[in-house]
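Ticket #4471: structure output looks truncated?

Reporter: J.K.
Steps to reproduce: submitted the chain below (93 residues) through the standard prediction queue, then opened the result file.
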Amino acid sequence: MINIFQKTPGEINRIIAQNVTNLRKRKKISQKVLSQKSGVSYGSIRRFENEGEISLTSLTKIAIALGVSEELEELFSEVPFDSIQEVINGQSK
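Returned output as attached by the reporter:
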């Protein structure tokens, strides 16, 4: 069943980009400095912050540079089971 209130991939990407932008600004780091610290090109950082488009590797580099790599590592780690069948599926090797 499709949830009509579910966000699109682009919307989720823009939310993540906005969160990263807010964190960067909170730490008083410019896009150029973040580029230097992370090894991600300045253009990629600009595109990410404006459009939400970035590779996973570049996002990981940015997270490391901002000191939030643990949060990225924890993504999907605490997802609750939706059904007993998922519990059973998770136990089979």
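Triage note (M.O.): checked the attachment and the full token line is present. The two ends are 29 Å apart (CA to CA).
Status: closed, working as intended.
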